[in-house]
Amino acid sequence: MALQIKPLSDRVLIEPVAAETQTASGIFIPDTAKEKPQKGTVVAVGNGKKDHSMTVKVGDTVLYGKYAGTELKLEGTDYLIMREDDILAII
User: Fold this and answer.
1) Cα-based torsion angle of the residue sequence 73, 11, 54, 43 in order, rounded to the nearest 10 degrees
2) Which residues of the chain have pLDDT under 50?
3) At a CB cut-off of 8 Å and minimum separation 6, what does 39 contact?
4) What is the C-alpha end-to-end distance of the chain, expressed in Å?
5) Is the CB of residue 35 less than 8 Å from the CB of residue 57?
6) CB atoms closer than 10 angstroms to residue 77
7) Using CB atoms within 10 A as the burial measure, which of 25, 46, 50, 90 is most buried?
8) 16 Cβ contact list (under 8 Å, min separation 6)
9) pTM for the model
10) What 8-state DSSP symbol labels residue 26?
11) DSSP class of residue 86?
12) What was the pLDDT predicted at 62?
């Protein structure tokens, strides 16, 4: 089923990766101590601005700032929508 959302202008819709639930040594991390992920997959991309074309494309894995974007929930899945300028790197 295709996602029925299209970001406008230079905005990007990102699906964050799941937060770590266990450390490398096997200790389980409680929900209150989990860090917010800073990595995700681009799900949808806007058209860009007149003087700025979009660099990222659907399917790219990106790194973004810890407090970047706006959280939203669509069809039971968590997403972030942010400006392309808030993306730090494509990995």
Assistant:
1) 0
2) 1
3) 16, 17, 61, 62, 63, 64, 91
4) 26
5) no
6) 11
7) 46
8) 36, 37, 39, 40, 78, 79, 80
9) 0.81
10) S
11) G
12) 96
CA nearest to 87, candidates 40, 53, 44: 40
Measured CA angle at 38 (ends 36, 45), to 5 deg: 120
Amino acid at 78: D
Q: Is 82 exposed, middle or buried (0-12, 13-18, 19+ CB in 10 A)?
A: buried
In angstroms, the Cα distances linking 79 to 6, 72, 84, 85 are 13, 5, 15, 17
What three-state secondary structure class fits 54?
coil
Q: Which residue has the tokens 């937060």?
A: 19
